[in-house]
Design goal:
The protein is about 50% helix and about 10% strand. The protein is an alpha/beta fold. The radius of gyration is 18 Å and the shape is globular.
């Protein structure tokens, strides 16, 4: 267990960043026992951090009581071995409420997702995230995606805000991301963390590495930790031969399958966890389950991914 600040713990990770799915029982309620097992397995497999109740964890589908219970369970299962970052979102008042629930549950930090429904200007976005950051002592990572897209000037102001330690990009505009990194590097003293937050981030991570963005979320780690760890190590050491073998043989087919259905960035991951032997239940509406044929294809992709690991030995 360490008391080092979150930015320091995330800045030099020892493994992939783990975004667990949220487990549901047959009646659709949260199954904390299975969720604990999922988190525990991820930490034991080598995760550097647990991002609880975020996009892969269906934050959108959880009521506040479920959210707090899941974050608390993740904190208890990690037992300080790795940091726990909790998702927060919706409008400013609800985002603040979730932030305080995460603090009460023992989280180490927050991933602030886009506000709900509205498309706000830069001034309003800046005010929103500053109010979230001021609500608790927990450090905040701002998530760019969907209706929360920032100019470099706004990210400079976010980086200057007490409590905001990083920026996660789920948009995929590399030109904008380069300008953001450059502007913050030029205008702000001190370290600021950047994350590749695109779905199946490994698929684009070699490009993000060229921008200096070395941190990324790994949904694949939920169901195929050995594959995710092999890619992480290849990425960390610059072993592009191994990275390309995994990208060509596993990640690209997985991404192409993911593109076959809306919401598959979450639904396929949960299906993958079930295929690997842990019954985490189905996704909640408005997401839907993958078709039977797509699940069969997923099983084949996973099998091929593990075969690639054997080929590389």
């Amino acid at each position: 267990m360490t008391s080092a600040p979150l930015a320091a713990r995330l800045g030099i990770p020892g493994g992939p960043l783990f975004f667990p799915v949220t487990a549901y029982g047959p009646d659709g309620s949260v199954d904390l026992d299975v969720y604990r097992a999922h988190v525990r397995r991820g930490v034991e497999a080598g995760a550097a951090a647990v991002f609880a109740c975020c996009g892969t964890g269906e934050f959108h589908a959880l009521v506040p009581e479920e959210f707090e219970a899941c974050v608390r369970a993740a904190v208890e299962e990690t037992a300080g071995r790795v940091p726990v970052v909790a998702g927060v979102g919706y409008g400013t008042a609800l985002a603040v409420r979730y932030a305080r629930l995460a603090e009460a549950a023992g989280a180490d930090g927050l991933l602030a997702m886009p506000p709900y429904l509205v498309i706000a200007g830069q001034e309003g976005l800046l005010r929103h995230y500053r109010e979230v950051a001021a609500a608790t002592p927990l450090p905040v990572i701002v998530y760019q995606r969907d209706n929360a897209v920032f100019t470099p000037e706004t990210v400079v102001e976010l980086a200057r805000t007490d409590g905001i330690i990083g920026f996660k990009d789920g948009l995929g505009d590399l030109d904008l991301m380069q300008r953001i990194v450059s502007a913050v590097r030029t205008e702000v003293h001190g370290d600021f963390l950047y994350f590749n937050g695109l779905p199946t981030a490994e698929q684009t991570q070699l490009a993000y590495r060229g921008l200096g963005v070395t941190l990324y979320s790994s949904a694949v780690f939920c169901f195929a930790p050995e594959i995710a760890l092999a890619f992480y190590e290849a990425h960390r050491t610059g072993d592009d031969t191994t990275a390309h073998r995994l990208l060509d043989g596993f990640y690209r087919p997985f991404v192409e399958l993911r593109a076959q259905g809306r919401g598959y960035a979450v639904a396929l991951v949960k299906a993958g966890v079930r295929l690997r032997g842990l019954d985490v239940g189905e996704v909640r509406p408005p997401l839907h389950e993958p078709s039977e044929d797509h699940v069969k294809q997923l099983a084949q992709v996973i099998e091929r991914g593990y075969a690639l690991l054997d080929e590389g030995k």
